[in-house]
Batch of 2 targets.
Target 1
Amino acid sequence: MVSEKQSHGAPIPVSLSDIADRCGGELIGESAHVVTRVASIGNATKDSLTFLASPKHIVTAGDTLAGVVLLKPEHQALVSGNKILVDDPYLAYAMVSNLFVHTSADLPQGIHNTACINQSVVLGKSARIGAGVVIENGCVIGEGVMIGHGSVVEAHCHIGDLTHVESSVTLCANSRIGMRCVISPGVVIGSSGFGYAPEGKKWRKIHQLGAVVIGDDVDIGANTTIDRGAIDNTVIGDRVKLDNQIQIAHNVQVGDDTIMAGCVAIAGSAVIGKRCQLGGRASVLGHLTIADDVVLNANAFVSQSIKQAGIYSSMIPVQPIRQWRKTVAHLNRLEKLAASIKKTGK
Amino acid sequence: MVSEKQSHGAPIPVSLSDIADRCGGELIGESAHVVTRVASIGNATKDSLTFLASPKHIVTAGDTLAGVVLLKPEHQALVSGNKILVDDPYLAYAMVSNLFVHTSADLPQGIHNTACINQSVVLGKSARIGAGVVIENGCVIGEGVMIGHGSVVEAHCHIGDLTHVESSVTLCANSRIGMRCVISPGVVIGSSGFGYAPEGKKWRKIHQLGAVVIGDDVDIGANTTIDRGAIDNTVIGDRVKLDNQIQIAHNVQVGDDTIMAGCVAIAGSAVIGKRCQLGGRASVLGHLTIADDVVLNANAFVSQSIKQAGIYSSMIPVQPIRQWRKTVAHLNRLEKLAASIKKTGK
Amino acid sequence: MVSEKQSHGAPIPVSLSDIADRCGGELIGESAHVVTRVASIGNATKDSLTFLASPKHIVTAGDTLAGVVLLKPEHQALVSGNKILVDDPYLAYAMVSNLFVHTSADLPQGIHNTACINQSVVLGKSARIGAGVVIENGCVIGEGVMIGHGSVVEAHCHIGDLTHVESSVTLCANSRIGMRCVISPGVVIGSSGFGYAPEGKKWRKIHQLGAVVIGDDVDIGANTTIDRGAIDNTVIGDRVKLDNQIQIAHNVQVGDDTIMAGCVAIAGSAVIGKRCQLGGRASVLGHLTIADDVVLNANAFVSQSIKQAGIYSSMIPVQPIRQWRKTVAHLNRLEKLAASIKKTGK
C-alpha cells in the first residue's frame, strides 16, 4: 500500500455579486450574501442558489427559501428575496454551475509516484497525473491536462491544453485530443476499427492504420467507444458532446457542435453534419451522410442519407401487450389488407 | 514485477444433508453423500447436484446419474437415486448455488502493497483491496468489502459492508453504495450527467453537482454506467438488479426490487417504479414516470408515462427481407390505404 | 513516477516485390520501389500503396499518384504506374495491410516491473506484459502473448499462444481464450451471468458457476461484455469477430466464423449458428436458435428461432416527424381499419 496525502476542497462560499458578474445578470438584493450550494426551487434553503426556468415552477416560486433565485425580469415580482434578473435562467445557471463543484476527483498538480511515463513524453508543467497512469513513448501532453487514475495513454497520442482525461480511460496509439475536452471514465478512443474482407467463408482482418482526431471543447461520456480509421482518420469536430455508451465506428466524421444522447451508434464512414442533435439510441448506417441541423429523435433508425435539416423519427411507442399483439398481427397482414381493399374498391 | 502468493480454494465437497438444510428441503437418500459440482440433469454425474425445474426434463429425469436431484414432491417417483424434495426446485437451486463457487477472484484479506489509499480513508478491518486499487480522500469503506484489482474509488465515496466491487470498476466522487452489493467489472458510477443549456448555436455545460446513491443488495452488471445527478441525486433502490451495459442517466430513480436486463437505457430524470421488470434494450425517455409492477418487454420503447401495472411491448419481430420490404412499403402507404378505404366505404 | 525506456518502430519501407509476394499478385513495374504507407486512391502519393476495389473509383484511377495500385487484371490499363494484379483487390489489401502498422501499442518483450504476477502462473517465455497488469494464481499464458497496460487476468484463466489482450481488459476467473485472438480495451470476459430466481416479490441470485470459452482467431471489440455460464459454459467459436459494445449473455453459443457488428445483444442461452452475419444492434432473445448462414440486418429483433438461412429484417427507417406521427397514428388504428374493410367488403 502506497500511502499519500491529498486534499480536495470543501464547499466554497460564493457571493451573490460574484454570481451576478459571472452570468451577466442584474442583482436585486444583498450582494454580500453568500450561498454554498445549488438546489431545486422547492428544496432550496438560505444557503442555496436556485433558478426559475420551467413554467411549472411559477406557482410555487413565491414560497422558495432560496438565498438567491435566477429568473427572468418578467417573473421578478414572484420572488420577494434576493434575485438575479437574466434573459435565460437555465443558461445563466449553466454559466455559474461550476462555482459549486465543491468535491471533485480533481488531482493535485504533479505526477503520482506510481505513474509510468516514458522518457520521450513531452508533458506540460502544470499537468496532473494520477496513480497507475501509463503514458507511452512519443506522447505530447499539454498544459493543465489532468489524467485520472489508472488511465492508459498509448504511444504517440497528443492531448491538448486543459483537457481532463478522467479515471480508467484508454487512449490507443496515435489518438489526438484537442483542448478543454472532458473524457469520462471507461472511454476507449482509437481501438481497432471493425474491418474484414471476405475470403471464401472466412474473414480476413484489415489492419486499421488511421487514427482518431478529436477537436476542442469535446465532452465524451462514460464507456463510449470511438474506433480509429481504416486508412484515413475518424474525426470528431469542435464542441461535439457525446453522452455515455455511444459507439462511433471507423472513419466516421462528426461535425462541429453536434450533440448525441446515450447509446447512439454510428456505423463506419458515416458523415454527420454540424449542429445535429441525435436522441438516445439513434443509429445511422455506414457510409451515409446526414445534413447539418438534423434532429434524430430517440431510437431513430437511419438507413438512407438525410439531405435536409429537420426532425426525423421512426420509433413506435409501447402499447399494452394484448393490444400490441393485435397491432403486429395486422401489420403482418398489411399486404392482404391492401389487396382486399383493391378488390373491394373495384 | 511484484511477486506474490495468493491461494484460492479448490472444489469443496458439500454433503447432501448440508444442501437440504440450506434450501429447507426433505432429503431422501444418503445424507453423507457429497457432491462437488452442479450440472444440468442430462450431464450430471455421481459428484453433481442437479434440479428438475422444467417440464421438458421430466421425460429424461429417470436416466440422470446425478448425486442428488432437487425436485418437487410430485416428481419424486421419477428419480430412484438421492433426491431432495422442495416446493420450487429452481429457487432451491438458487439458494444452494453459492456452495459451489469453487474458484473465484476473491481476494485474500488485507491491502495489496500496490494499492494507493489516502490516509483519510476509513477502511473496515476485514476489507480486501486488490492490486493497483486507488481510494481517494474522505472515503468510508465498510467491513468485509472487497475492491478488485485496478478499481478506482474517487473522493468521498461510501461503500457499505460486504459489498464486492470487482476488478476495473470506477466509482466517481461522492458515490454511495449500500451493503451486500456486487459491482461488476467495467462499471462506471457517478460520471458526469449529460446536461447542456443551449447558448445560441452552441451548448453550455451544466456542471453536475449531484451524486449517485445506491441501496442495499444491488447487483450491477459489467460496463453499466450510472451518471450522477445534476442538482439532486440519481437514486437506485434496494435489491435492484441491473444487467450488463445498462445506461442510467442523471437524476433517474429506480424503485426497490426492480430488475433490468442487458442494454436497457433510462433517460434523465425518469422515475421507474418498484418491482418493475425491464426486458433487454428497453428504453424510457426522460422525465417520465413508470408505475410499480410494470413489465416492459425486450426492446420496448416508452415515450409517455405508464400509470398502470401491466405488460407493455412495441417491438416488431424480424421477417425474411423480401417480406419485410413489402411490410415497410405498406406501412409507408398506410395513409393512402386509410383514405382509399374511406372513399370505398362511401 | 516510474521512468522507463520503450521504443516503438518508425514507418518501415516495404518493397513492391514484398507486397506482391504477400498477396500473391503479379507485379507490373519497379519491384524495388518502396512504399511506407497506405492511402485512398485519391489521396495516394509516390510513397503510398492504394487499391482499386470500388467501381466508383474507376473514373479517377488514372489520376492516382500512388506508388503502387492493387487492382484486377481487367483494370490494369487504367493505371500507368506500378501496379499489382490480383483477383480481389480488397482482400489483397487486407493481406498486406499489417505490413504498414508502423506505430502501435505493442509492448517490448518481457514483464513490466509494476506488473503483479502470481508465482503459480505459467507464462510463455516470449510474453509481453504491460504496466500494472495483474495475473492471478493458476493462469496459463501462452507463447507470444501480449497483455496491455492495466489489464486484469483473474485466477485460472488460460490464454492461447500469440493472443493480444490490449490495455484495460478484464478477464474474470476461469476464462479460456484461444490462440491468435485480439481482445480490445475495455472488454470484460467472464463476468457474472444475470440469473435470479423469483422468491415472492424479490429476486434470489443464482451463483454463476460456468465459464467463458473462446476459440482461436477471435477478435473482440472495445467494451464488449461476455458473461460466464450459469452451469455450463458460454462458448464463442473459432474465427468469430465481435465489434464494440456487444453484449453476450450467459450460456450463449456462437458458431465458427460468425461476425457481429457493434452493439449487438444476445440474450441468455441463445445459440447462434456458423457463418452468421449480425448487423449493428441486432438482438436475439434468450433460448432461441439461429441457423447457420443467417444474416440479420441492422437493428433486427429476433423473438423466435430462425431455422433457415437467409436475410432477416425488422427495422423501420426514419421519416420526417410529421409524416411519422401520421404513420404511427394509422398503425395504432390498424384494427379499426381492418374491421372497416371487412364491413365494406360485405
Target 2
Amino acid sequence: MAVAANVESLVQAAGSHVPPLMEELEHRLAVLAGGHGEVLARHGGDTIAAGGKRLRPLLVFIVAGEAPAACAGLVRAAVAVELIHSATLVHDDVLDGARLRRGRPTVVAAGGRGVATATGDLLFSRAFAELALNGRPEEVQALSDASSALVQGELLQRADAFQPAAVTVERYLHRCELKTARLFVAACRLGASQSPLRPQPPPEPLGRFGRAVGLAFQLLDDVLDVSGPPERTGKARGTDLLDGTVTLPLILARQRDPDLARLDLRDVTTPGDAELVCQRIEAAGALEEARRHALAIVGEAKATLPGLPTRQRAALELVADGVVERYA
Amino acid sequence: MAVAANVESLVQAAGSHVPPLMEELEHRLAVLAGGHGEVLARHGGDTIAAGGKRLRPLLVFIVAGEAPAACAGLVRAAVAVELIHSATLVHDDVLDGARLRRGRPTVVAAGGRGVATATGDLLFSRAFAELALNGRPEEVQALSDASSALVQGELLQRADAFQPAAVTVERYLHRCELKTARLFVAACRLGASQSPLRPQPPPEPLGRFGRAVGLAFQLLDDVLDVSGPPERTGKARGTDLLDGTVTLPLILARQRDPDLARLDLRDVTTPGDAELVCQRIEAAGALEEARRHALAIVGEAKATLPGLPTRQRAALELVADGVVERYA
C-alpha cells in the first residue's frame, strides 16, 4: 500500500530511536488486545492490527525526541493514544453499520453490535489503565479531554447531517477540531510530557502544531472522499454525501454552484447519485480550494514550529508533509 | 418509591457527613452532564438523573469515613464511579434496544443509537477526566480495571446467551463478579484511598466486602427478574429469559426439574412463555435457594469486615442489609 510505505519511510526518517519504539508499540498493543478474554482477543486484536498508519503514536515519539534506554512511559503514552483512536473507529463502524475498514471486516460485521460496542468500551478502558501507569494525572486529563472532544465532534456531525445550509466553514472546522485535531494535540502533549530532553519540548506550541496537522488530515480526508479515485481509497466516491455528512468541498461548492446550493442531500440515495454530485463539486473547483485550505494550515504549522533540535524539527516537518503527500 | 426511600434512610443512617456529600455529588454530576454540548446535556443529564440509587457513591463515602471540610477528591471519586455505572447502563440499553429504564425513556429511545453510543463514550471519558484530577494513578488504575471487567462480563453474558447447559454456577458467579462486583470493589478502594482517617481504612478487606455486596446485589437482581411482581419491578417477569440470559434461578431449577433442563430458551418467545417458565422456576424452589445463596454472601461479608470505627462499621452493615431488604 502506498500509504503504508509512505509512513514506513517517515518512521525511518524520524530518527534512529523511532523504529524500535514503533516495534515496542506494536508488541504492547498485541499484548493488551490479547489479555482481556477470548472474544476481545479476536476482535480487539483485529481492530488494532487493522489500525493502519500509527500516525498519532509516531507524533508522540517524534515530539519526545531521542529516547533513553528505558522508554516504557513513552510507549505507554503512544499506546494509550492509539487505543483511543481504535475505540473510536470501532464505535463509528457500529453506528454507520460499516462492513469493511481498510479492506477487512469491521468488528461489528464480524461479531455483531454487542461485541463491537463492548470492544470499543474495552479499548477506551485499557487506554486509561495504560496511561495511569505513568503516574501523571495531567496526561490522563489530556487524553480524556481529547476523547470527550472526539465524542462531541461525532455528535455534532450527526446533528448536522443532511443540513448543508446550517454548516458554515467555521462550524465545519470546529467539528474537525473536536473530532480529529484534539487527539493529535494530545499526542503532542503526551510526547512532550514523556520527553527525556532537557529542557522538555514546549507543550503549547507543539500542541498547536498537532492541531494544525490533525485539521489538515481531516480536511484532506474529506477531499479524498469526493475526489477518489475508488481504486486508491478502497471505497466509492461520495460516501459522506450518502451519510448526509456535510464537508468542506460541498460547503465551498454550494457557494459557487446554485444547483448544488439547492440540492437536498436526502435525494442523494445511490452511489450513482453520489458520483454525479462529486463531479459537480469537482467542476466547481471546490476540491482545489479545500486542498489549498489544508495546505495553508500545514504551511503555517511548519512555519510556527518552536525552537527544537534540527533533527526533531525536520522529522515533524516530514510528518506534516506526509499528511499532505498522502493526498497529492 | 420503596427503593429510593430505603436508600434515603441509608444515607441518613450512614453518618452526618454523608448527606452533604451526596448533595455535592448530585451537583457535580449535573455540572458534568451540562458541560459538554447541547445534545449531551439533554441525554447525559437524563441518564444521570434517572441513575437511581447511588449505591456505589454511597459506598465510597461510607468507606472514607468522617469527611473533612475539603472533600473535593472524595466527591470526584464517587462521581467517577457513578459515571462509569451510567455509561454502562446507556450502552447496555443500546444493545438491548431497551425503551424504558426506571419508567423513563432510555437515551437510545430518545436520541437514537448514535447519540446513545456517544453519550456512553462521553460518560466514560468524563469519569477518567474527573478521577485524574485527584492526582493518584492507582485510583485511575482501579477504575479502569473495573470498567474493563464490566465490559468483559457483559461480553461473557452475550457469549453464553441461550446456552443454559454451558453456564455452571461457577461460571455464572464469575460473570457477576466481572459485570457487577468489580465496580463495587473499586468504590470501596477509592473510598479508602480518599479517607481522611488515620490510619486509612484497609483497602483489601474493604474490597472483599464490596465484592460480596456487589455479588449479592446482582444475584438478588436476577432473582427479582424471575420473582417479580411486575407492579414492584416495573417490568414483566422473565425478561432475562427472553434475552436468553442464564441466571442463577434457572441454573438451580434445571438441576431440580427435568422439564426445565430440557427447555430450549429459544422457544421462550413471548411474555406469556416467560411467565410460565418463571412459575416453574419458582415451583422448583430455585428462587429461595438463590436468595439463600445471596444472603450467605452478605452474611460472610458482614462477618469479615475489618476493624473499623463503630459508626462506620454499622453503616457498612446497613448497606449490606439494604441490598438484601430491597428484595425481601
